[in-house]
Write a structure and sequence with these properties.
By secondary structure, this protein is mainly α. The chain has two domains: 34 residues; 109 residues. It has five helices and no strands. The N and C termini lie far apart (56 Å).
Amino acid sequence: MKTLKDILLISILSIVLMQCANEQKKELEAEKAKLNIDIEEDISSRIDKMIQEAEWPTAEQKKKLFELKLNTKNKIIEVNQQLKKTKILLVQNLIIKGPTTYKLRLLKKEFKKMHKQKIEIMLDAIEEARKLLGKGNQVSQLDSMYHHFLLDER
């Protein structure tokens, strides 16, 4: 059975961890608010420039980052094409053909699956970039823009 001292210690530790998490959330929100991104902006070229101008990654790391970016972009393009087809089928079945409940359920399931696949591709690429670059403060300089690129819907 836990003593009052143990419960108090766990409670204090939980509060401290929650405060740290809240501070990091606030920092991320502040960083996000500072970013000026036009919806039509080509984030890809902006990231290319950031990678090229970064001083700390080696030439080999930069090369691998560009390769990772290209591979990720190509995978996302493929998924986006399938998503567009599914959207068209969904609209056709809703408006033109008269939907069957089962067909709509299948289309919605497929749509969710593709979005999940897209997110997995993005998150895997972020993890791969982190492994490639190593840990440390330098990584956070590119994280924000690289993340925005990966979440780009185009």
